[in-house]
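retry 2 of 3: previous attempt timed out while embedding coenzyme A. Reduced batch size to 1 and resubmitted. Inputs unchanged:
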Amino acid sequence: MTLVREADLTDLAFILPLSRDAFSPYGHYDLSIAKWFLTPGTYTFVCEREVNGKVCCGFIMFALMSEMRRGVQDEQDGETVLEIMAIAVSKECRRQGIGTELIRFARQFNQNLAAGGKPMKIRLSVAETNQAGRSFFEKRGFRVVAEAPWRYPAGQKALRMEL
Ligand SMILES: CC(C)(COP(=O)(O)OP(=O)(O)OC[C@H]1O[C@@H](n2cnc3c(N)ncnc32)[C@H](O)[C@@H]1OP(=O)(O)O)[C@@H](O)C(=O)NCCC(=O)NCCS
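retry 2 succeeded.
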């Protein structure tokens, strides 16, 4: 059974160590994740799936933001987008569809917000060197639309992707 639910404060016990591990090649992101978690307008959802009697988890964090707030100067069209700030699945639970389920949920959330109108674009940044992440997003329909004018704290180029 798969359940996607809104995260609460107790989920930080799982989200923060996972973020520390998953994003450590790019910088120290656990404090940023904690700050974003508490920022109004940022939404965090957890996916739980039972696999062989064990619960596997992942989370997605997204926010409605204007490109100016994100600091992406080449995209300052005043448009509000649904920005995926982070997505990660516990290491031992990867490649079992949990990430896909979280993206499906984000798309549904976006559709619901649009209430029959035009849904927002969904965008994200991914490190150029993150082959697994890039492959994952490409399989889910995202395409690279630009190189961001900033780098990750550890020095990797950031690619902007859009669904
Ligand atoms: C990216 C991530 C969220 C995908 O979650 P997931 O639950 O493993 O994804 P799914 O099982 O739904 O999809 C698997 C697809 O992702 C890609 N993928 C996942 N792990 C991969 C790896 N180690 N190497 C290559 N491709 C990989 C592949 O396209 C794979 O499809 P395949 O199994 O048919 O080859 C997960 O790998 C993760 O937590 N990574 C670390 C955090 C991260 O890099 N997040 C993205 C940047 S914010």
